[in-house]
Design goal:
Helix content is 39%, strand content 10%. By secondary structure, the chain is an alpha+beta fold. It has a single domain, classed as Cytochrome C3. The strands form 2 sheets. A two-stranded antiparallel ribbon has the order 1-2. It has a two-stranded antiparallel sheet with strand order 3-4. A hairpin with a 2-residue loop joins strand 3 and strand 4. It is elongated, with a radius of gyration of 21 Å.
C-alpha cells in the first residue's frame, strides 16, 4: 500500500514541478543589451506588470515613448519595438544613444523615486 501511495504521489507532483518554472516566469521581461558593441552590464530582467503596478505606471507610453520632430507624441507608444530600433549606440542629433536613453528613462526614473 505504501509503495502504491508513493507512486501515486510522485505521478501527481511531477507535472507541477515541470509547470512551475513556466508559471513563475510568465511576466518576466528582458531588456537586452545585445545591441551594444561592448555590453557593460547584464541585461535587465524584471516582472513587467509588478514593476508597473509598484511604480504606478498606467500608460505604456510612459516607458515606451514615441517622438516625432523632437516632440513626444503622448497618445502613441512603441511597446512593439525594441529600444535599439530607434536608439543607436551613439547619440544622433536630439536622439540620445541607447546607453544614455536607458540612463535617462529607466535609471532616471529609479533615481527620482529613490531606488
Amino acid at each position: 500500500m505504501r509503495r502504491h501511495s508513493a507512486v501515486l504521489l510522485t505521478i501527481t507532483i511531477i507535472p507541477f514541478l515541470f509547470a512551475l518554472p513556466a508559471v513563475c516566469q510568465e511576466d518576466m521581461v528582458v531588456v537586452a543589451g545585445d545591441s551594444f558593441e561592448v555590453q557593460r552590464r547584464p541585461s535587465a530582467v524584471f516582472r513587467h506588470d509588478d514593476h508597473n503596478k509598484t511604480a504606478e505606471i498606467e500608460e505604456c507610453n510612459e516607458c515606451h515613448h514615441v517622438y516625432e520632430s523632437g516632440e513626444r507624441i503622448t497618445d502613441e507608444s512603441s511597446e512593439d519595438q525594441r529600444c535599439a530600433d530607434c536608439h543607436t549606440e551613439k547619440s544622433a542629433g536630439n536622439r540620445p544613444g541607447l546607453r544614455k536613453a536607458f540612463h535617462l528613462n529607466c535609471k532616471g526614473c529609479h533615481q527620482s523615486v529613490g531606488q
